[in-house]
Amino acid sequence: MQWYQRRVAITAGSLYECKLNCQLSLADACLVVDALQPRVKEDLVNWFVDRQLTEYKSLFREYDEVSWLDKCDRRYAWLKRCFLEYEEDCARIFPEHWNMPGKIASDFCKVTRKMLEKQMKNRVSELDVKLLLFAVQKTQAFEKLLMERFEQEPKRELDSATDGETEKKEPESFHNAMSQCFEMYLNVYIDSQDVNLTELVEKFVLELKEGGVPTYQVGDPAPLLPSSSDLFVFYKKCLVQCSQLSQVRRFGKSGLK
C-alpha cells in the first residue's frame, strides 16, 4: 500500500512537472508571437477565446430550459468557473498585458447578449415583470463585477510592430454590455405598473365614495387622505425598480399613463 501511494505521488509530481514545462514552452512561444505582426497575435487570441466559449454555447443552447431568463445567473457562474480554470491552466502561458481574461469576458458578453435577445424574441409571451426584474438585476450585478475587475486606467503596452514604441489601450467597457438587450422589453414593466396604478386609484376612489369626503372648517389644515400614503409608497417602489433597471430616462420619456 505504501509502495502504491509513493508511486502515485511520484506520478502526480511528474505530471505536474510535465505540465509546468509545457506551459513555460508555450509562454516562450507567445513571446515570439508578440514580436511578430499584430495580426498574428490577434488571430491566436481570437482562436483561443472562441475555443473557451465553445462549451458555453453548447451548454446554453437556444431551446434548452437552462438558457431562459430565470436561470441567467447560471451563465455568469459558468464564466466565473472559466476564469478559475484559466488561472490554473493558462495564466502562465499568455503574457499579462494580453489581458486574455478580459477578452474572454468581452466576447462572453457579446455572445450572451445575442443569445438573450433571440430567447426573448422567441418567447416574448412568457415575459413578465418578476422575470424581467430578476434577469436585469442578476445581469447588472455581474456587469458590475466585470467592471470592477477589468475596467481600470488605460494601460500602455509594448507594441513590437512599432519598434518599441508604446500605445495607449482603452479598457473594454462592460457597462450595459449584456443588460442593454432588455431595453426593448421594458414596456412589459411600464404596462404592468400602469395597470397596477389604475387599479389602485380606482380602489381609492371607491373607498372615498363609500366613506364620504372628509370635511373641515375654513382655516383648518386640509385633511390627509389615508390612501395618499399608500399611493406614495407605490410611487417609491416604482422609482426604486426603475433605478434598478438603470435606463431611467426611458421611463421618463415613456411614463405611466
How would you describe this protein?
The protein is mainly α. Helices cover 66% and strands 3% of the residues. It has a two-stranded antiparallel ribbon with strand order 1-2. The protein is elongated, with a radius of gyration of 28 Å. The N terminus and C terminus are likely disordered.
SSE topology sketch:
Layout: H1 2-35, H2 38-59, H3 72-89, H4 100-122, H5 129-150, E1 155-158, E2 166-169, H6 187-211, H7 226-244, H8 248-254
Antiparallel strand pairs: 1-2
Flag low-confidence runs. 1-16, 155-168, 248-257
Helical amount: 55-70%
* Order of helical and strand elements: HHHHHEEHHH
Largest sheet: 2 strands, antiparallel
Taking Cα atoms only, what radius of gyration do you get, to the nearest Å?
28 Å
Which percent band covers the strand fraction?
under 5%
Dominant shape: elongated
Q: What class do helices, strands and sheet pairing give? A: mainly alpha
Strand order of the biggest β-sheet? 1-2
Number of E-state strands: 2
Helix count, DSSP H or I runs of 4 or more residues: 8
Gap from first CA to last CA: 78 Å
